[in-house]
Q: What sequence folds into this?
């Protein structure tokens, strides 16, 4: 898996021409938008950069867990984008807004990035815009199955209409 520094580089730059090695597993996530794909992509990248840069600058110390994972509400209210906080409550209970999608809490979403006890099982690889209504995000994974709900929620909160796995590149 690429490290935080490489992932930050990939989020900041279009590295589609940088092909993966033969043993890299990539998954394509199709993100349907309602004509606002550029905005959804920009919001999602900004959000992920905020959290991944924080993790890169604050390495885990197992001796501090669980205290390290205490969410500083004031810090994250300042650090996370307003649009994300509007879609993602701080309160503990999770609310269902449709039969298939839950609203994540800030603490639950941050857990997948900040907890040293859970390894985020995906890394950003690239995200070509197919059209004004479609993004194809390539993520690197290290195993199948993998947890990617945090990315799905980030995209949904950013305004994506439909987010689904669409293709796999698994090395042989």
A:
């Amino acid at each position: 898996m690429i490290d935080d520094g490489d992932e930050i580089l990939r989020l900041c730059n279009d590295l589609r021409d940088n092909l993966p090695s033969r043993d890299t597993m990539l998954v394509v996530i199709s993100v349907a938008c309602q004509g606002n794909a550029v905005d959804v992509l920009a919001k999602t990248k900004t959000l992920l950069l905020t959290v991944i840069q924080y993790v890169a600058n604050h390495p885990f110390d197992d001796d501090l867990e669980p205290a390290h994972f205490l969410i500083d509400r004031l810090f994250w209210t300042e650090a996370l984008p307003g649009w994300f906080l509007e879609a993602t409550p701080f309160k503990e209970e999770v609310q269902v807004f449709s039969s298939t999608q839950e609203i994540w809490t800030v603490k639950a979403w941050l857990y997948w990035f900040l907890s040293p006890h859970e390894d985020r099982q995906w890394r950003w690889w690239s995200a070509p815009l197919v059209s004004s209504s479609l993004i194809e995000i390539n993520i690197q994974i290290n195993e199948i199955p993998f947890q990617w709900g945090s990315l799905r929620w980030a995209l949904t909160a950013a305004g994506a209409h439909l987010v689904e796995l669409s293709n796999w590149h698994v090395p042989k």
